[in-house]
Amino acid sequence: MNKLYSKLFIVLVLAFAIGGCKVDAPVYPEGTVSTVGKPKPATGTDNGTGTGTNPGTGTGTNPGTGTGTNPGTGTNPGTGTGTNPGTGTNPGTGTGTNPGTGTENTGDGLPVGATNTIQIRYTAGGAIKTYKNNVSITALMGFITVGAIESQSSIITFGLTDTAVGTYDLFALQTENYYMDPLSIGKVKVTESSFNQSTGKGTIKGTFSLDMTDGTTTYKHVLGSFNISK
C-alpha cells in the first residue's frame, strides 16, 4: 500500500515540474523587429510598372483624320438646274382659255340654195344633201317650223322662234339618221324675210349651224341653209 502511494506521489511531482517549465522568448539584438507570426508585406509596386499609357498611344485621332468635311462639301439647296417652285406656270400655259376661245356660233352656214330647198352638210368638206320635195313652213303661236319630206325615210325638220331678219336659237333639228346634240346650242340666222306668219305667205331665207349626233358619234359644226317661198 505504501508502495502505491509512493508511486502516485512521484507521478504528481513530475507533472507539476513539467507544467512549470516554460520556454523563454528568444532575445534579439536591439532594433530588430520580429516577423514571427506576422504576414509578409508584398514585394510588388502599386500601380504596376507596365509600359501602357493612359490615354493610349495609338495613332488614331479624334476627330478622325479622314478627308470628309462637316458639313459636306455639297451645297444646300443642291446645285441642280431645277428651281423651286418649278419653272412651269400655274395655271398652265396651255392655249386653252377661260372662257374658251372657240368661235361663237353665229348661225352662219352654207350658201343659200335654190328656191324651196333645204341643204345640210354633216362634215367639213363632205357632201351636201339637198331636200327639195314637200318643203314647208308653218307658224303656230309664234313658233316657226320648217321641214321637207323627200320620202318616208328621208326627212328634215327644225324650229325657230321668229321669221324676222336676225339670229335665233335653233330647236330640234332632225334628219333621218341624225338629231341635234342635246349638249350643244344650235343657231339659225334669217338673212332675208317677207314671210307673214298670219297668212303663211312670203319668202324666208337663212342659214344654220349646230352639232349633231347619231347616238354614237357627234358631228361638230354641221352647216346648212334654207330658201322657202310660199
From TrEMBL:
Signal sequence annotation: 1-25
PROSITE patterns from the UniProt entry: PROKAR_LIPOPROTEIN (PS51257)
Presence of keyword Signal: yes
Amino acid composition bias (Gly residues), ranges on this chain: 47-99
UniProt region (Disordered), positions on chain: 30-112
Signal recorded as keyword: yes
Residue spans of biased composition, Low complexity class: 100-109
This protein's UniProt keywords: Signal
Protein name: DUF4352 domain-containing protein
